[in-house]
Amino acid sequence: MRHAEEYRDGRIARALGARIARAADPAASYRFMEFCGGHTHAIARYGIEDLLPGNVQLIHGPGCPVCVLPVGRIDAAIRLSERPKVTLCTYGDLMRVPGSHGMSLLRAKATGADIRMIYSALDALRIAEAEPNREVVFFAIGFETTTPPTALAIRLAAERKLKNFTVFCNHVLTPSAIQNILESPDLRTLGRVRLDGFIGPAHVSTVIGSEPYAFFAEEFEKPVVIAGFEPLDVMQAILMLIGQVNEGRHEVENQYRRAVRPQGNDRAKADVAEVFELRKSFEWRGLGLVPYSGLRLKNAYAAFDAERHFGIEYLPAPDNPACECGAILRGVKKPTDCKLFGTVCTPETPMGSCMVSAEGACAAHWTYGRFRDREAS
Amino acid sequence: MSPKAYRRKLDIRNGRVDLSHGAGGRAMAQLVADLFHEAFDNDWLRRGNDQAAFDVAQGRMVMTTDSYVVSPLFFLGGDIGSLAVHGTINDVAMAGAQPLYLSASFILEEGLALAELKRIADSMGAAARAAGVPIVTGDTKVVERGKADGVFISTTGIGVVPPGLDLSAEKALPGDRVILSGTIGDHGVAVMSKRQNLSFETEIISDSAALHGLVATMVTAGGQGLRVMRDPTRGGLGATLNELAQQSGVGFRIAEEAVPVKPEVTAACELLGLDPLHVANEGKLVAVVAPESAEAVLAAMRAHPLGCAAAIIGEAVADENRFVEMTTGFGGGRIVDWLSGEQLPRIC
Ligand code: SF4
């Protein structure tokens, strides 16, 4: 990780900022969506907006795994955790996501559910092996980056013939979500959002490669530049996007060559394909039901599928009506457009999922960027 | 308490804490005498009373108390015992005070190895002696297995403030300088790297240390120019600056480049998804100092071994929002907020 400093050099950043300012046509404006929560976080954490000219705007996208999980899925996890003998293993961020009726996994834990915070799918597997009389469920979420480790845990569980390990699978796919945004009425017919290009995912692209984005670039005529998560990566990508827009190009370019290959990581893709298959549709917070956007376990691994093992029925549940996460995840609104932002809703008492994870648009703006609201007002 | 009354020696090598060690009988008396008194030995304990009596100093006294529940009990650079001594001494010292006496209270879990308890008690005794602050009274309770995690320790400290000094958290004024005594994040990362479910190897050692010596040199150098001091423990530098901003009704502006962080701590934080600004320290302090005294205080700190990496990291400003804002090394601006939610396990 020591190399990281070279991608955070303030002098290079200022020089790049100046190049961006020269490249941007003062008579035009540029609106780019960063799909990934990792980029949202880097942009806020390093104050990248301060280094960009006013006519270059960044729109936060739906690539924060905690944010896009709908209320119904949180409710299902809470119900699961309340069953006798169940130990639910989850990433820390998910603990505070509000479900229905003011419940969250954190509250369920306080009232006695056995919920454990873990750092990886393999931690859950270890717990299952160490405690054979508990029913250990891994609450799996995330995009293509976190899917291979879940697949590995499931295959190991099968090899070791574990009878007390299942996965509540909520893995989702990036390309389907991008397509959904590009096809949304907000963009196509209502003209509520204008997007001039995408900053493409970093880690996700190391797995799926750059090829899957070619379709959007082509079909929707939007440039895509895949970028690393370091702040200089993001700035470089912005410069490349401006170049494409100015030249009327819409191609997939790869800023993150040090890690992303066109075809991605075949081994990881094969591991995932061995265990998972596409769901017909999956509900996303903000985007609604998105066809072929989520994964579930194949029949061969049905014994490890918590949904089948426990007969979990999916009950959709409404968001808090005042919460604007849905519109924010589609790029239609900003955190400050929400009446609850910073008043009722803060990271201590999140009312919606975007205020929970550090990658969420509301949490990132509250935690790092809210001083700019004062300057604006 | 005459040791002759007990035939059998405490089996420190193989023995374990059992419920009789908290029951008020001979087993308890023996544990206290052979293990704790042995480790902490001083005149007050030798008198064997349930309290310690001492003369009262002239002037203002300070008193503080803290509990220690760190897991694991032992980590690189310290253990729960030395932490319980250093942490409470530091809370006394942050008033600019000279710490005088400590008390220590133990909650032991049935089954704790006596060898571990002895290691902890010896380390407390050594830390207290090195600091010149004796542990003069204490208490021990034992709870059933599963009702605690090895050992919990509470320490209370009292000290005396030099005449004319009145440090307090509401005293920061716009224009005051913010001085940090050294690198941040060392303690939290040292403890977290020891935890079994975070398996990575680092050479990071906890900074756990008693700061009253450093404070004394600052008081001499800065005098009335010292407005407030605080040790950024839980919640890290970020939480401390936000607390002071709230209590003083000011904002702070700091520069990321001025905040010292060891490269290995930065790397570990990266891996753990943490911000070093939110990671606990146990041997660092933040001082808000009047601008005219800042250079003198800084020089005094740098001349002390525990302040050799001290730096002015920013200043207090008038700000009704009481924001702590930071210019990032990258050149942009950001808020430094409190850590939200308790994502971190027990670190102190
Ligand atoms: S501020 Fe809170 S309630 Fe409003 S959109 Fe964001 S997460 Fe939802």
UniProtKB/TrEMBL annotation, chain A:
Keywords, comma-separated and alphabetical: Iron, Metal-binding
NCBIfam families, per database record: hypD (TIGR00075)
Coiled-coil intervals, chain numbering: none
Family note: Belongs to the HypD family.
Protein's name in the database: Hydrogenase maturation factor
Oxidoreductase among keywords: no
TrEMBL record, chain B:
Taxonomy, superkingdom: Bacteria
Name the record gives this protein: Hydrogenase expression/formation protein HypE
Pfam families the record matches: AIRS, AIRS_C
Ranges of residues in domain PurM-like C-terminal: 174-321
Coiled-coil stretches noted in the UniProt entry, renumbered to this chain: none
Family listed: Belongs to the HypE family.
UniProt-listed NCBIfam families: hypE (TIGR02124)
Alphabetical list of CDD domains matching this protein: HypE
InterPro entries in the cross-refs: HypE (IPR011854), PurM-like_C_dom (IPR010918), PurM-like_C_sf (IPR036676), PurM-like_N (IPR016188), PurM-like_N_sf (IPR036921)
Domain called PurM-like N-terminal: residue spans: 48-161
